[in-house]
Amino acid sequence: YKPEYKTVIQFLMIHRMTPYSTLKAVLEKASDGNDTDIDKAIQVLNETIQCLLQKIVTLPCEITGERMCVLITTADREDLRNYLTPIQTEYLHRVVNAILTSEDGFVGAIDAINLHTQLKKGRINCVDAENYLDVFVQKKLLMKDQGFYCLTALSIAELGPYISEHYEVENCLLCKTIVIVGVKCPKCEVGLHKHCFDNFKQGFKKQVKCPKCKNAWIEHIPEPVMSIDHHSTDSDD
């Protein structure tokens, strides 16, 4: 493939998750402005790296709506031992479970730390748990703000099959990707990402109607808990 594609995959191997616009800028810079077709680059790279059980996936950040590019493994999507220890992996699964079984897709920091008492593969204390949570944030598996944790685009893409198999989650009716943090129609309870709903309702001059049941969508839509930029492209420590 083109030499500039090598720069793109190297960038993703370092950062694992980056905004789509950033990856496009990387390609443009590497090609001296001659190539801006990042979608084609992703297609070619995926054909090349599939034998390595890797794949580049694009999906929206549930919090900001920004389109993200992530590099995932297509082997055992539940197995995170390539970059986490066994006890870290078990603890992360406990946190993920707490997030996915919550009402809003978030878990508070104190509740997350207290999950260390449920581990079976070893013992850790509160300080260890807090340090592990920092590791998960640094590795872009979790986002944290205002004392709450939620999943990132990377963790949703990486654990997608596992999440779909073990939890009652649905795909957003509009973007067709898993929705964990979102809004529900007050009538039929179909789930949508808030940013998808915000874009959808721009097409209505008066009363917004549910894209599924067509009933009026009159429920107040609260702002998401998290609103800051969590997608720094700094490399993992």
From TrEMBL:
Reply yes or no: does the keyword Transferase apply: yes
Keywords for this protein: DNA damage, DNA recombination, DNA repair, Metal-binding, Nucleus, Transferase, Ubl conjugation pathway, Zinc, Zinc-finger
- Compartments (UniProt record): Nucleus
A cellular component term (GO) from this record? nucleus
EC assignment: the record states: 2.3.2.27
Asked if the keyword Zinc-finger belongs to this entry, the reply reads: yes
Q: Which GO terms describe its biological process?
A: double-strand break repair via homologous recombination
Query: Reaction catalysed by this chain?
Result: S-ubiquitinyl-[E2 ubiquitin-conjugating enzyme]-L-cysteine + [acceptor protein]-L-lysine = [E2 ubiquitin-conjugating enzyme]-L-cysteine + N(6)-ubiquitinyl-[acceptor protein]-L-lysine
The record's listing under Pfam families reads: zf-RING-like
State any single GO MF term.
zinc ion binding
Chief place where the protein resides: nucleus
Where in this chain does the record put each Non-structural maintenance of chromosomes element 1 RING C4HC3-type domain? 172-213
- List, alphabetically, the Gene3D superfamilies matched: 3.90.1150.220, Winged helix-like DNA-binding domain superfamily/Winged helix DNA-binding domain, Zinc/RING finger domain, C3HC4 (zinc finger)
The record's family statement is: Belongs to the NSE1 family.
Write down what this protein is called. Answer: Non-structural maintenance of chromosomes element 1 homolog
State the species of origin: Rhodnius neglectus
